Structure prediction request, 621 residues.
Amino acid sequence: MRNLIYIAILVSIVVVFFAGFIFSDKAIFGTDYIDIGHFTVKFLRDYIHEFGRYPHWEPHLHGGMPFIEAMHGAIFFPLAVPLRLTLPVHRAWGFSYVIYMIIAGLGMYILLKFYKLKSGASFLGALTFMLSPVLVSFIYAGHDGRMSVIALLPFMVWLLERTMKNRRVLDFIIFSFGYAFYVLTVHLQMVYLASWLLGALFVFRLIQGVIIKKYSWANAGKLLTLFIASLILAVGMTAFQIIPPFDYLGKYSVRTERTEGEGIEFSNSWRMNIEDLVSAAYPEFVGIDLPDKGTYWGRNTFRINSHYLGILPLILAIAGLFALKKWILKFLAGYSLFAITYALGTQTPLFYIYYYLIPGANKFRGPEMVFFSVAFSVAIGMAFFVDAITNRKSDNHSKHKNKKKVVDKSTKWLLWSALAGTGILIIFSVIGKPLAEWWLRTAPNYAGVNIDTKIATLSKNFPIFLRSSWLAVILSWLGVGVLFWRAKSQKLANYAVVLVLAIVLLVDLWRISKPFVKVVDIDSYFPKTDLIETLQSRQKVEGPFRTFALPNTVSYTYLGSFGLDALTLSELHGNQLRWYDEFTGRHQQQQNIWRYQPFRDILNVRYVLSPQQLNVPFLSF
Prediction:
C-alpha cells in the first residue's frame, strides 16, 4: 500500500507540473519541435491514415529524402506512435513528455526497491531523477528522443540487475526485449551512450560475482555468452531501425561532410565546458539562453538545457560514497568520473583515448550528452544515503551497533560535504566574477564565440547566479539539518524526514526545471493562411511543384506541414542527401539554385517567397 501511495504522489507531481498543458488544447514549445518535429509527426500521421502503411520517402524538404533511413523521430517507438496516430498532432508530442517523466520516476523507484531500499528513500531518489533538470530541460529544445532514453535508463538497469541476480535464460530474453524497446526510442547516439553504462555494469557484476565466488569462471563464461546473445537478439529485432540509418548516414547523408573532413573537431563540438560543469552543482552559474533570460556566458554558442544535479542530492551522494560500503555506489562514482571526462571533450587528454579506442565514438558529436548518467548515479547515491540514516535503530544489539557506526560515519561525511559545498560558493561569491572573466580570456575559445559579449553577459548573469545558488544552499542545509536530527534522535519519524527532504527537493528542482516548459498556441506557428490556401489550390490545378522560400519568409517546415514541397537553404533537418547540398550549392557564396535556371527546373521550382520585392534579372520562371 505504501508503494502505491508513493507512486501516486509521483504521478500527481507530474500532472501538476504539466497542468497548464494537460488541461488545455495547447502545445508544449520546443525549438526542434517547431523546426522539424511538428512536420514529421503530421506527415507520418497523415500518410498512415491515408495509405495505411509507413512512408518510404518524404518529398517535402530538401528535394526529398528517405523517411526511415534519414531518421524522422520516434516513428517506431511503441510509447510515441499510438499517441501520434490518435491525438491531435500538437498534443501528441506534449503527452510524450508527460509519459516519459512518469516513467523516469516509476523506473527509478522500482530500481531502488530492487536494491532493497525503504520506500521513503526510494521515493526521494525517484523524485530527484524525475524532476532533474538534466532530464526535463530537454523539453524546451524539443529533444523528446533524448528524454525518452534518459527516462528509460532506470528500467534498463533494473532489467540487467535482475538478470544478473537470477541468471536465468528467461531473464536474458526479457532483457533482450527491453533493449530492443530501448533502441526504438530512435535516439541511437543516446542509446549507444546508455549502453556504455549497461555494458560496464554487466562487466562489474560479472567480475564481482567471480571475486566473491558467487559463481565459477564457467558460470561467468555462460553469463557472458547469454549477455552477448541477448544483445544480438535485440539488434536483430530492431535491425529495421538500426541498419538503414547506419548505412545511409555513413554513405549518403550530408553528415559525411563533417565526419570525413573535421574528425575529432566534429566529435568535440557541443561539449560540456568547465564553466558548464560548475553549473551542475550551483544552479545558473553559467546562465541559460531562454527567451526571458539570455544569460549564458559559457564558451558554447548557446545553451538551452541545464546540467544542474541539485546541490542537496550531490551532497548526500558524495557523503554516501565515502560513508557506505556499497560497491554499486563505487561503481557509479567511477563511471561518473569517466562520463564527466568524456563530456568535457578535448579539455582533457582522456578524450583522445576515448575517441580512438571506443568503437563508434568518432561517429558522433556532442560529448556532453553522456552527462545524463551522472544525474542517474547521483539520484541513486542520494537514496542510499537517506536509507542508511533513516534505518538507524536505538537498541544495543550488535547488528544495530554496526548500523549506529554507519550512521555516525555518515553524519561526519554529511557535515564535511555540506561545508565544502557552502565554502566553494562563498569563494565564488567573493572572487567568482573576476575568476570567470579571467577564465574566458585565457581558456581556448574552441567555438569562436565573441568573448567581450560573453563577459558582458557574465556581468548580467552573476547576480542571478548568486541569488539562485544561495537559495539552493540554504534549502540544502534544511535537508542536512533534518538528517542530522534523525541520525541523533529517534523522536523524529522517518515520514517527517521524507516529507522535509521531498519539499526541499521539490522546491529546488522544480524552480530550475519548470522554466523549460512553455505552453503555446500551435496556430501561432502553423496558421493556415491565404498563402497556404493559394498554393494548395494551384497545386490541384498545376500538379506538383516546389516553392523556393527565401530567408525571413516562412519557417523551415511551414509549407511542408501543409503538404507542400519546399526548397530552402537551411539545414535544420541535417540528414538530407549530401548530393542535394552539392547540387544546390548551399554552402557556396552564390548558390547554383540562385544563379542557374536549369537547377531550378530540375528541382521543379515554380514559385519564390520573398520578404521584399525581387529585382533579380537572371531569376525567371
Q: What stands out?
A: The radius of gyration is 26 Å. The beta strands are 27-28, 57-58, 65-66, 519-520, 546-549, 565-567, 605-609. The chain has a mean pLDDT of 90.
